[in-house]
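Can anyone check this?
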Amino acid sequence: MFRRLFVALLALTAAITTAPAHADAAFPSVGGNWGAPGPYATAVEIGAVNTLYYPRDIARSPLRHPVIVWGNGTGAVPLVYRELLLHWASHGFIVSAANTPMSNLGISMRAGIDSLTARDADPSSVFHGRVALDRIGASGHSQGGAAAIVVGADPRVDTILPIQPGPLADIDAVRGPAFLMAGQYDSIVWPALVKAFYNDADHIPALYGEVRGADHITVAGDPGPFAAPTTAWFRLQLMDDPEARPVFYGPDCGICTDRRTWSDVRRNTRVP
């Protein structure tokens, strides 16, 4: 009798400890305070191809965490954007940043997805069973913004957020919703170039946001006005966060009415 009970308890313990994380469980609310650090402590892992920014205790998380793949601007490395990438990680995302300073083709960004797919399946990895491989976004700055558009053609990518993207990309191949960001005073990637991508994205829900007062390097270092809207976008698209929906959708969307942050906002007819 005791032996049978002991074996049953062992089986129950094993079932509990090996149960998969839930992809559909809710992430902690941040009350709409997208620009503040999120509820997760963070960690960084520097690899040969990609640098990972992620919730430090992810191995003990009951959730599967969405992925953001990142591309750097020309000549830059993830360290330049460290504060923004850590900010996203603090909100529960796994960020895979390509180490390459020439990211336009998106090769390292796709490799980041491949690597996380393998690590999610590896029982010895802290990411085992914790990666939401069905919730992947792509983002990047300048040349890396163009790379985010390129990677948006990958069927594994659900949404893109190019920041001041360079011109060498074709948005016609992108499959999911897009939020294209420009800087009002950007003299390297002029707002008109970003608007051209937006105008061409008539086959998907697309938004254009021009950050008031921003130049081409505002997002580097302290991401300032870029932190809150990018976080809200990914929490909406990859976490189904209901608090983020009115930031972008509806007749009185937050970015549509906030003229202190935005010098120009546009949404096409496919946006709800």
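Reply from J.R.: I decoded it. The chain is about 30% helix and 20% strand.
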